[in-house]
From TrEMBL:
This is Cysteine desulfurase. Keywords: Pyridoxal phosphate, Transferase. It catalyses: (sulfur carrier)-H + L-cysteine = (sulfur carrier)-SH + L-alanine. It is an enzyme of class 2 (transferase). It comes from Christiangramia oceanisediminis. Its EC number is 2.8.1.7.
């Protein structure tokens, strides 16, 4: 039914040709990290082969070239997210770093007794930094609950939101359930009481092209490694007025204007938040990954992945004892499941023996597992380079694992 040329796309990903335990690899752990196309690898090799140098400091040509490419990468991200200004794009080591940077900054803004709201379906990296912030400031953390389809209960959010709410933070897409949250509605509502909003876009960014100006969001954080880029690099988008207001996160080189032992003044944006030598090659490769994905097209990617999702969900549901967690009306290509009486770890181990990579466990989202009263799930997450044939192999392997374990 699809016109998506997946076979051509697969040619770009050398790793998809390898075998695991004697079987051709089926990689269904894309929500943990995505694979890298050779176009991005070429950029990495080119960087180290031709213009590896430290940035912003050198007068020599290599340093200038590296600086130009790095700043060009920032512009690529700016355009991708439709940020108004390039200095609203802060390079980080990933989503976790971006969230910690903002949480740290709010320590000097939040006051005792003020409230911050989190959703019930967050990754630990969007929970723990805020708990640490509450310990430092005496602010209170409140939770927006979800229903058993894995959807946030909007009316409860309206209920707990108040003029005392200073900040709301939630993921655009849940890594454990695939739920796409109605973030525009939540951002608008939060702004009606002047609360700032941080969106964890780690799981949305590989499938949905967010427009930060249209969303009106205050902070949006992403990781390159979930979207065909390398690990150890990501981006924090922050609205200029907020980035001006927040204090620096780390002190060091690059983030200063002047330093003396009496007083140091800080550099302007974005350097204020980019202490030390950054992941220069990573930032440049991230931009190459965005170019790669944009050339295919995010709506084409999402459309094809939805077909994979529907196909896999339908086939999985035919298996007796199958329970799927997260059946939101809008979701990305993630299926979290258990089979009655079987441990997710055992299923995952047998799938690996058959060359199929899935994730098992709590997916860094223990509160979700507690909500469903389970220790964990098996999670299959699909990308645009996966195929219907791979799903057939996966379904057969799940059936076989079930037979072996029962
Ligand atoms: N939030 C969500 C929703 C995620 O899925 C992840 C990665 N599993 C993170 C945050 C953390 O991202 P990183 O490990 O790249 O910092």
């Amino acid at each position: 039914a699809t016109t998506f040329d997946v076979e051509r796309i697969r040619e770009d990903f050398p790793i998809l040709k390898r075998s695991v335990n004697g079987y051709p690899l089926v990689y269904f752990d894309n929500a943990a990290t995505s694979q890298t196309p050779k176009q991005v690898m070429d950029v990495i090799v080119d960087y180290y082969s031709n213009y590896n140098a430290n940035i912003h400091r050198g007068v020599h040509s290599l340093s200038q070239e590296a600086t130009d490419k790095y700043e060009q990468a920032r512009k690529t991200v700016q355009q991708h997210l439709n940020a108004e200004k390039a200095h609203e794009i802060i390079f980080t080591s990933g989503t976790t770093h971006g969230i910690n940077l903002v949480a740290n900054g709010f320590a000097s803004i939040l006051k005792e007794g003020e409230e911050i709201l989190v959703s019930a379906m967050e990754h630990h990296s969007n929970i723990v930094p805020w708990q640490m912030l509450c310990e430092k400031t005496g602010a209170k953390l409140k939770v927006i609950p979800m229903n058993d389809r894995g959807e946030l209960i909007y009316s409860e959010f309206e209920e707990i939101l108040s003029p005392n709410t200073k900040l709301v933070f939630l993921n655009h897409v849940s890594n454990a359930l695939g739920t796409v949250n109605p973030i525009k509605k939540i951002i608008d509502k939060a702004h009606s009481v002047n609360a700032a909003v941080l969106i964890d876009g780690a799981q949305a960014a590989p499938h949905i092209k967010a427009d930060v100006q249209e969303l009106g969001v205050d902070f949006y954080v992403i990781s390159a490694h979930k979207m065909c880029g390398p690990t150890g690099v990501g981006v924090l988008y922050g609205r200029e007025e907020w980035l001006e207001k927040l204090p620096p996160y780390q002190g060091g080189g690059e983030m200063i204007a002047t330093v003396s032992f009496e007083k140091t003044t800080y550099a302007g944006l974005p350097h204020k938040f980019e202490a030390g030598t950054p992941n220069i090659c990573g930032g440049i490769a991230f931009a190459a990954a965005l170019d790669y994905m944009n050339a295919i097209g995010f709506s084409e990617i999402a459309g094809y992945e939805q077909e994979l999702l529907e196909y896999a969900a339908k086939k999985l549901k035919e298996i007796e004892g199958m329970k799927i967690y997260g059946e939101a009306s809008e979701k990305t290509a993630v299926i979290s499941f258990n089979i009655e009486g079987l441990h997710p770890y055992d299923i995952g181990t047998l799938l690996d023996k058959m060359g199929i990579a899935v994730r098992t466990g709590h997916h860094c989202a223990q509160p979700i597992m507690d909500f469903f009263k389970i220790p964990g799930t098996v999670r299959a997450s699909f990308s645009f380079y996966n195929t219907f044939g791979e799903i057939d192999r996966f379904i057969e392997a799940v059936k076989k694992a079930k037979m072996m374990l029962q």
